Every structure is written in C-alpha cells, then in structure tokens.
Amino acid sequence: MKSLQGKVAAVTGAASGIGKEIALALANAGAAVAVADLNPKGADAVADDIARGGGKALAVTMDVTSEDSVNRGMDTIADALGTIDILVSNAGIQIVNPIESYLFADWKKMQAIHLDGAFLTTRAALKHMYRGDRGGSVIYIGSVHSHEASPLKSAYVTAKHGLLGLARVLAMEGAAHNVRSYVVCPGFVKTPLVEKQIPEQARELGISEDEVVREVMLGRTVDGMFTTADDVARTVLFLSAFPTAALTGQSFVVSHGWFMK
Fold this sequence. Notes:
Layout: E1 8-12, H1 17-28, E2 32-37, H2 40-52, E3 57-61, H3 67-81, E4 86-89, H4 104-129, E5 136-141, H5 154-174, E6 179-186, H6 192-205, H7 209-217, H8 229-241, E7 250-254
Parallel strand pairs: 1-2, 1-4, 2-3, 4-5, 5-6, 6-7
C-alpha cells in the first residue's frame, strides 16, 4: 500500500527544482498532486510526467503573491481532486545584496513570494482541511536560514525566519481541526536558484566562485556535499505520511550537518 494513497497534495513552485522533486515523490507515494506554479508550461510538463508514470496530477497556474490567484487556484484543486490534504508551500526566489544597497522593491518582492505566499496558500487550504475537522498537513520549505543568518541575504533570512512563526501558530490553531504544520529547512541545494547565487556572491564578497562553493556553501557541512532535492523530497514525504501530531510545529534541518540544533 502506498503511504499517501487517496490523499490530495498541492505543491507550489512545483514546475522545477525542489518543488518538482517533491511533487514527483508525493505522486509516487500515491497522492493526487496539484502542480502549482507561475509557469504554466512547466507545471503542465511535471503533471504530464506524473501521468505518464501512472499517477494523477493537475497543473494549476498560480501566482502565490495574488490573493485572487491563490484562492481561485486552491478552489480549482479541491473541486477537481476532491479536497486538499497536504499543502507544500515551496515557491521562492533569491535576491542577494548588502542591506545598504538592497532595493525596497526587491525586499517587498521577497516577502511577498515567501511569506505572503505561505500565508495565502495556507489560508486557502485550511478552508478545505478544516471542513468537518478532516485535517491535513501543511509543510513550509524554509532553509537553514530559518535558523541563522548569512551576509547579503537580509530579505531571505527574514522571510525564512517568519515561516517558523507561521508554522508554530498554525500548529496551535490547527490542532483542534487535525491540521499539522512543519518547516523543512534545507542547506544549499544545487538548483538554478543556487547556481545563480554563486557568481553574485563571488562578486559581492570579492572571492572566487570556487571559494563561494567550497567555503560559503559547503564549508560547514560534514561531508562537503550539497543537499539534494531528493533529500528534501524524502523529508517532505515522511512528514506528509506521519500519522500523529507528535512532530507538529517543528522544523527539520536537512543540511548534511551544516546546521545542528
């Protein structure tokens, strides 16, 4: 028996990278998966991959910074697939700059995607999870930077810290309705988002790109290895299928030992 047979999962930012890997992992475990992304072609491609593998998937175009887009998208998911049992709030971007030159427009964009998006998708999913106290799991993709800071990442660190607070409040409020919440906190995963940071950080820090990888990104891991999208997806799958509220409100660092708490 697949661990998520009969469940419905919505994954944001699922057209590529970590989100895609999570969507595929949940589908392989038996869930019907809504692939939500701002990129409709990318979402369609991932949904098609799931369908070719024998799974059930729905591509949904969603801008997580738009209240109307989120509400419409989540209702579309529930109408098409029956409900929403699992929400994985994964959509995110990165913009690096020192605080003194960080554009306010970029700051607001970062908060809108990471924090507003998490709030809006959570609120829209809870309408379905709370109905009849059927319950569900909400999993936020945070970061090691949910727990500590790095130079050049004021907006990102602030947003990822904020997800901890949202998850903890949801753990308290959602318990009466059988809803659980978690934050998965990866180290550096070599996605296009991270690849883009390497030359940016090299330029801002005045070091080589090799030094950025070796010292900044991997210097504090125990094995000099990047966290993989599969590492993250396996953690999300474990939490999605966990049968009680024993772990609700907690964060789970997936970083090859970079951060230990």
